[in-house]
Amino acid sequence: FEDALVSQMNHALKKVDGTFRIRKEQGRIYIEMDGEYDYDEAVEALKCVFGIVGICPVVILEDEGFDKLAEEVIHHIDEAYPDKHFTFKVNARRARKNYPLESMEINAQLGERILNAFPETRVDVHKPEVVINVEIRNQINVYSTVIPGPGGMPVGTNGKAMLLLSGGIDSPVAGYMIAKRGVKIDAVYFHAPPYTSERAKIVAKYSGPINLHVVNFTDIQLYIYEQCPHEELTIIMRRYMMKLAEHFAKENKCLGLITGESIGQVASQTMQSLAATNEVCTMPVYRPLIGFDKQEIVEISEKIDAYETSILPFEDCCTIFVAKHPVTKPSLNVIHNDEKKLSEKIDELMQKAIDTVEVIHIEA
Ligand code: ATP
Ligand code: MG
User: Fold this and answer.
1) CB-CB neighbours of 259 under 10 Å
2) Distance, CA 164 to ligand 1 centroid (Å)?
3) What is the pLDDT of residues 83-134, one digit of tens each?
4) Got the DSSP string for 91-120?
5) What is the pLDDT of residues 220-235, one digit of tens each?
6) Is 166 left (phi over 0), alpha (psi -120 to 50) or beta?
7) Nearest CA owner, ligand 1 atom 30
């Protein structure tokens, strides 16, 4: 897991100005910089790496006795906090137990020295504004800023899944959520031209590179449109989308499909519609947004900077063929019957869609 995390960090930092060296050490991962680098960019890049809980700019000191440590900590505070009107506590941890002072003693003695150096500060052990972390290892780590990371697990530690990526708000969020659990993402997009790959880039920022399968779906849609009742169009179309997605998923050794569906959001996402769509799949279908309201999905979309791109105008292949009154409670019997109206031609069209797929390698 740590190796996967380091490899994702390396990947994320590749685009950032500067030379970075990543080093692992018992429960911590260090990034060392040679010379100039862009701090803000580096932090932004790391905030997209799943598995990172927090990012701490750290001062690393040699152990040259407690007096020297106190001096350095006071110097650090002086530089980092020009205004000394804040409350603080010292939080010492000893990973190396042979240090002459115990953690509690370090907290008390260092706290006292800081108070003496900066009389404007105050100690608050319950809700301090600043926590001065001191980790005694072979060297000593001093840090007081923890920038939250995205959490989750490093991508690549949990297999791969095929994301059905549309032009809406939901599916990039669904991809984000499954990638957060360490799953590598491939994607399939059923398109009606013109097509842009902006949406896939949103997910790739977090999941790493994505192979996006762009499937020309227009002929299949037209044929269903000609043969089947229009109120069932969306459901039947979605069943064919799932079948095709599963084909590409198997071909690429994916262990499941991912969609942005949420119960009741639209006619094709009622419990009955989801059952009808799901029936054609043999693989597990992961629907991480299943219990979310639209507003909750929008909030995540904004948090991951996907929203701006997701609301750009876009001809979804589904919207072109949308019926005025789609069924909200499709019956499987009726769907099965109506699908019989599709001759072998549908298989030929499916094969053609498979044969003409265009795979685009997307990097953020
Ligand atoms: P989204 O906001 O993700 O577009 P939606 O609310 O528009 O979702 P639907 O159009 O019913 O909902 O699609 C439900 C799910 O089916 C999407 O979240 C996506 O996973 C998949 N999907 C829909 N259209 C496409 C498409 N053109 N290509 C690939 N996947 C699609
Ligand atoms: Mg959509």
Assistant:
1) 28
2) 7
3) 999 999 999 999 999 999 999 999 999 999 999 999 999 999 999 999 999 9
4) EEEESSTTSSS-HHHHHHHHHHHHHHH-TT
5) 999 999 999 999 999 9
6) beta
7) 164
